[in-house]
Amino acid sequence: MGNEVIAIFAAGVIACLAMDFWQQILKRWTGIPATNWAMVGRWFVLTLKRRTMYHATIDNEPPFANELPLGWIVHYCVSMIYALIYWMLMRQGIVQPTLADGFVFGAASVVVPWFYFMPCMGKGIMGKFTPNPLKTCLISLSSHLVFGTAMALGFAWAHQ
After folding, report:
1. Is 153 in contact with 86 (CB distance < 8 Å)?
2. I want to staple 11 with a disulfide (CB 3.0 to 4.6 A). Which of 33, 42, 68, 154 is the partner?
């Protein structure tokens, strides 16, 4: 079981690093800023303080001390949860650590930001309340495709 825990951790970190790297590439190529992890940290703090996950006015809330490092921690912890899910799917024979399965997993995983996280941060379902919902969704989709593919590659590497 120890090797499996290491594989889950490694795949989660690899996937998260790949997503972060991809967002930096997008930023350089297109000028689209990478995810602001400070806002994720702020969302997390507000969720704990107010006991609700929905924060429609989060952009107008004052910043909290250390919200950026907290946002990065939440980001990587969520990646570990995704890695655990991928591992459980592998154990059931539903997915394998292949490029195709990772790509499909990444595509499926985008439902979380589209239908949960964006609405919780007041951006609406699929970023409906952002300046450009289609662009917002495509950026999220591309990041999750990279994430899922890297997750599969991380598991393939860990199981060598």
Report:
1. no
2. 154
